[in-house]
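Posted in: Structural Biology > Protein-Ligand Complexes

Title: Requesting predicted complex, iron/sulfur cluster in pocket

I'd be grateful if someone could produce the 3D structure tokens for the following input. Sequence and ligand are given below.
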Amino acid sequence: MKHNIVSVSGGKDSTATLLLAMAWDVENLQAVFADTGHEHPATYEYVEYLEQILEIQIQRVKADFSFEIESKREYVKTKWPEKGVSNSVIENALAVLKPTGNPFLDLCLWKNRFPSTRARFCTSELKVKPIQQLFYPILEDGHMILSWQGVRADESLDRKYLPECNEVIQGLYNYRPILKWSAKDVFQAHTDMGIDPNPLYKQGMGRVGCMPCINCNKDELKEIAKRFPEEIERVAEWERIVGLVSKRQSATFFTSDYRGHGIHQLVEWSKTVRGGKQYDLVEQMTGIEACSSAYGLCE
Ligand code: SF4
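-- Reply #1 --
Done. Output follows.
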């Protein structure tokens, strides 16, 4: 039997992919959403909106790092004293080394650091592996899975040369039906099917995913801080908690460098131009900004 499983992130591309699968009325269609615990509330609401308007159930999957955190506790208790780590640092770490139920935060507690563009373990731990857990029983029963992915070639060089379909392991195929689509095509599909895009696109977000994503650029960070300061405060609190688990008693969401240390300093840097030395005077003097939606959706 063939299973068509669409990974839904709440973003425009995966939504368009789901719309396409529904329009083609494919057999055994399932939709799955990997909840990182680091999404904007609007994205959670949007996934519910899709369920209601499309009359389809979107299965939520969530990574669980309870076992890893328990192992880490044991390691901190038994090995850190041997390594000469001070009692106060060990006490601080043990005070917070407990599963919170938030996958992103728990992952960082386990790793005692945040993911980064060089160590991007978040995607595999929070999205790929939880979705794979769903695939294994189906494959073990001898069924075939077409894993639908909302990936577009014009998003990046890495994606430009991806095949439309490839076999990953026996019986499991990655399928990218919108590979050749433009962002405009994607939004057009929403319009054609009478579906609203995630409202975050109209609020200056070029992409919808973790809030913020470790790959977010300067302008996106600036926009997030301006529109959703509560998300910045959440990350600042996470930096405090994850910092307590590290031997250095410090952890930052974005790499510390010339831009600053910690999310608050990075937000200040995001408001600057010319390599971070000068605030954006044009915007400050005129109050006029360019269209804040990267897709021209602002009204
Ligand atoms: S959206 Fe960004 S932060 Fe979230 S899992 Fe993907 S790469 Fe990591």
